[in-house]
Design brief:
The protein is built from ten helices and twelve strands. It is an alpha+beta fold. It has three domains: 5-110, PAS domain (Beta-Lactamase, 2-Layer Sandwich); 115-186; 195-345, Histidine kinase-like ATPase, C-terminal domain (Heat Shock Protein 90). The chain is elongated, with a radius of gyration of 27 Å.
Length: 355
């Protein structure tokens, strides 16, 4: 028995939307109802652009197809709505059609999770490459430093002139500074010393440290999930990771704006190839200017920084410390909203995190 065209459309996983020449919705299938967060009955006669908050790329694609009669496709980011709390990424294909009441067919697929998985894998690869860079830097820099410092000390003993000794003092002090820099790159060694920890107590401790350092009064907003249980963590390592992230957010705000600390339990979440039944998500959000687009693919590499006074070590060190707990730091950034998301499994594996 042949199925009707409407039954076939209803069974598709892709969202199908039919529009008239005024870009008003004529019809949509159930998949499109889920993506748009509106029923067919309520959507009929409404503007598609209004439902997606007049997204500029969507407007551009629709108007170009109406004007040219060509097919267009693009990946579009949809802002959060009353129905969907998070930003989403959709594949959008627009084709001209010629029916009695519609002139455009819009096919939409929610690829948010696919993009997240691709981004997570890229972050894991970046972290591995960053580790290798750190090892190479340590090998190339630290080994000669001991020889330079020793030679400067021997030379200092042969000098009777106090003014000349000032130069050897500079050599020794700068050598020590470079050695400390390499130690910072390498980060704290050894496997995590895990004990049951209340994540919110750690966040509050980090905020107290920041308040002692920061003279400017940044507005701080807390949004904690009170049901989040204690997790087996290395307190010192997690404090250091969160401290690095919060310091970056405070620096981005430059004394203006709001810092938001948020915690959530997320179910059925993949980190790399490992699926976890429940993870803790700790989010550090600021409403500053955002990370420049051209730097977003490299910010977890050592020595990459957006600030002239920055070292570019805070983020790779934080990623390394979280990875020792089987976790991962992700981020989203646009002007007015940057959020770093620390993902840590509630059920910790023994023997440290993934490599």
């Amino acid at each position: 028995m042949l199925q009707s065209s409407s039954t076939i459309l209803d069974s598709l996983s892709a969202g199908i939307i039919l529009l008239d020449e005024h870009l008003l919705i004529v019809a949509l299938n159930p998949a499109a109802e889920n993506i748009l967060g509106i029923s067919q009955q309520r959507a009929h006669g409404q503007s598609l652009l209004r439902l997606v908050d007049d997204e500029p790329e969507m407007r551009d694609i629709l108007t170009r197809v109406v004007a040219s009669g060509d097919h267009y496709a693009n990946e579009i980011r949809l802002s959060p709505t009353e129905v969907h709390n998070d930003e989403r990424i959709i594949d959008c294909h627009v084709s001209p059609i010629d029916t009695e009441d519609a002139c455009l067919l819009v096919e939409v697929n929610d690829v948010t999770r696919r993009s997240q998985i691709s981004r997570e894998n890229a972050l894991l690869i970046q972290h591995g490459a960053g580790r290798q860079m750190i090892r190479q830097l340590a090998h190339e820099i630290k080994n000669p430093l001991g020889g330079i410092r020793g030679a400067a000390q021997l030379l200092e003993r042969q000098l009777n002139n106090a003014e000349l000794k000032e130069y050897t003092d500079v050599v020794i002090s700068e050598t020590d500074r470079l050695a400390a820099l390499v130690d910072t790159l390498l980060g704290p060694g050894g496997p995590p010393n895990k004990q049951p920890v209340n994540v919110h107590e750690l966040i509050e401790y980090v905020l107290r440290l920041i308040e002692a350092e920061e003279q400017r009064q940044t507005k701080i907003r807390r949004d904690y999930d009170a049901g989040l249980p204690d997790i087996d963590l290395d307190r010192d390592q997690i404090v250091q990771a969160l401290l690095n992230l919060v310091r970056n957010a405070i620096a981005a705000l430059d004394g203006q704006g709001t810092l938001t600390l948020r915690s959530r339990a997320v179910t059925n979440y993949n980190i790399g190839n490992q699926r976890h039944r429940v993870i803790a998500s700790i989010e550090i959000e600021d409403d500053g200017p955002g990370i420049p687009i051209d730097m977003q693919d490299s910010i977890f590499y050592p020595l990459v920084t957006t600030r002239s006074e920055g070292t570019g070590l805070g983020l790779p060190a934080a990623q390394e410390l979280i990875s020792r707990h089987g976790g991962l730091i992700e981020f989203e950034s646009r002007p007015g909203r940057t959020v770093f998301l620390v993902r840590i499994p509630l059920q910790q594996q023994t023997g440290g995190g993934h490599v």
